[in-house]
Predict the structure.
Amino acid sequence: MQITIDGLQFSYTSTPILDNVNADLSGHKLVSILGPNGVGKSTLIHCINKILTPKGGTVMIDGKDVKEITIKEMSKIVGYVPYSANDSFPLSVVDTVMMGRHPHSKWGSLDSDLRIVYETLEMLGISHLAMRSFNELSAGQHQKVMLARGLAQEPRILLLDEPTSNLDVRHQLEVTKLLRKMAEEKDILVIMISHDINIAAKYSDEILMMHQGSIFATGTPKEVITEENLKAVYGVEAKVIDDLGTPHVILRDSIPVDLEKVEEVRSPLMAESLRAKNEDSIVSDAIEENQ
């Protein structure tokens, strides 16, 4: 699969959240989107999967504008695992994951769907939770079940919004490593938003680093995760060392900011933050429609 993003623009108000975003992603690999809060990472993947409609520019999947792809078609091509915050399903784990099979379901397919669901649960190490109620699980278990639902959909592109946010460090490593393995073995393009630079550097094939609504740098972890880029994008002093061929960041200190400039951008960022919270309901509705 190939995703081509050309001149993408999006704004909630007069302040642009995405401004002339350009990217070309293809192949079976793990791509991580990095950047501080408020730079448009979630908005970008929501434009890719049709949850949001861009104000300008195009998103193409295999040469076809997503505007021309029906919701039914999209649900077979693109899987989406949202940031797990307020998800609630009065269902068992196996039934929750089974929701991911809906785009492929047809008469007589229940047995094969169940097999895929249980294989996915086993792969994530949560098969013992199959008959538990989703609403009784911990935040970390919620996150794994939502990931299982996305994988059970068997998409050709999998989008994830901070898939390891509620996991401890061991499970963060395991899940990210699994995503890299899935990309290779299942021949899918996996794109995830991450705030853990070192884990992203360790497992990602490609990094998109965002800054002020645009792509600041793109390339391999070694090309993108540099001391200069971290200073410019995150406002931190850091030492980047080589760790078995991948960059590893050692944080030194934050860089003092110009308070006047902070005031200039604070209101738009606060507006985006509030809007992002309101998106939870939009995302939930879109997921249900996709399913």
Notes: The domain at 2-85+154-290 is CATH 3.40.50.300 (Rossmann fold). The chain has one domain: 2-85+154-290. The two ends are 21 Å apart (CA to CA).
